[in-house]
């Protein structure tokens, strides 16, 4: 079942990595929020995420949902970008045996999933080892 | 605020893949068993814990549905949702309604009907407990999220795959003594480590199953219970709840469950006791690593030492603090919305002296811990023999 509006709402984040930095304490929220989770301020500035970072933890998904059938098995994990923001992301173009926590990675724009045979194609960020 | 007692408990006959039993029949069967166990002929209010009847069977408005089919119209009936903590959160709401004096007899039930859909849809439905747009969208599944927590815990503290497997082995050993369990049989460490790898390092036997089931309890004021109860009275000594971030990557520490620590601290303070006073516990072993981290969050063991608990026998029947004598989510089953209520039932039976071969000798104080998602919500209750 296609969900176009639900998908396009997130395009500024998924395609352009648009985030929000709290004007009071500097904490960066991704996706942007209305209230800073650190200091509860409601004033933000638009920023873009740094595109490089390191793997904090990863796992290889061997049994996955059907939208990812053509990608399984795939590595997915938490990456901490150089601005301190953490994201959940697939880690691709890599040999699973060579992955490690601490490894440097770089964000690339990739196809994430497709919603069924007649659904929309969904894009976003994935990470590749540097 | 009044003291609150549990005077009736009941589950549907057996948990498992129950293709012939509908959502409403599961709930009503459990509720009638609880009402009969309580010996009451009247309810003032009811709560229905259920994570997502909408995604599994397309049904919402469960308060109305269940009150109707229980023959309890027109009492107020409310659905409570907190992902996998729906049952525990519903119990807390029922407790608050009695404690506040608003109602005398409150039924709290939990239910989940999961097997009408295939594995794929079930996985999708369960992933709704995570951040759909920033976690599930990227292909991380629930086993994947807990696998990430396991990796960090293993790297930092040296927890091993074998220690994870021993949680499953222990819980199956307990579950084999439970005729209501989905999987009432034992498994070995080799069975667990040799089973299909779902998301490194979690194998399928490190994961709780998909289950149809329901559980219900009847609450009333303690004074009333002392007058009318047919079975030994169990009292709610504390009820506490805390929220954590929805997304795992937003947590400060990937290897600990802060919402459980926070709820536990409040509960211990309210009951005037500490972790050492707990004699039996039911905790949320959605994955083997979850039980290990929860033991640390509850203060049953020091941070980092959770992996040794099942391995050493500390948390087995006969050990220092038996955990998941029912078989836990792993062996008993995990019909999501029912789990939190079933945990309360197991502890109630322990405190009544009614747990048969699973009985912890002289148990007088027990604890339940129910959690949603990767710790986005945690509910802790402390119960005592009254």
Would you write up a description of this structure?
The complex is a heterodimer of chains A (130) and B (386). Chain A is mainly beta and 130 residues long. Chain A has a domain of 87 residues: OB fold (Dihydrolipoamide Acetyltransferase, E2P), CATH 2.40.50.840. Chain A is built from two helices and eight strands, in the order H-H-E-E-E-E-E-E-E-E. In chain A, the strands form two sheets. In chain A, strands 6-5-4-7-8 form a five-stranded antiparallel beta sheet. In chain A, strands 2-1-3 form a three-stranded antiparallel beta sheet. Chain A is globular, with a radius of gyration of 16 Å. Chain A starts with a helix and ends with a strand. Chain B has a nine-stranded mixed beta sheet, with helices on both faces. Chain B contains 14 helices and eleven strands. The longest helix of chain B has 17 residues. Chain B has 386 residues and is of the alpha/beta class.
Q: Could you say which structural class the secondary elements and strand pairing of chain B correspond to? A: alpha/beta
Kindly estimate the percentage of residues of chain B that lie in beta strands according to DSSP. Answer: 15-25%
Rg of chain B, please? Answer: 19 Å
Q: What does the main sheet of chain B amount to?
A: 9 strands, mixed
Please write the CATH class name of the domain at 4-10 and 50-129 in chain A.
Answer: Mainly Beta
Q: In sequence order, what are the helices and strands of chain B, one letter per element?
A: EHEHHEHEHHHHEEEHEHEHHHHEE
Chain pair with largest interface: A-B, 32 and 33 residues
Shape of chain B: globular
**Count of all domains of chain B:** 2
Quaternary state of this entry equals: heterodimer
Task: Please provide the count of β strands of chain A.
Answer: 8
Q: Give the tally of β-strands of chain B.
A: 11
Largest sheet of chain A: 5 strands, antiparallel
Please identify the top-level CATH class of the largest domain in chain B. Answer: Alpha Beta
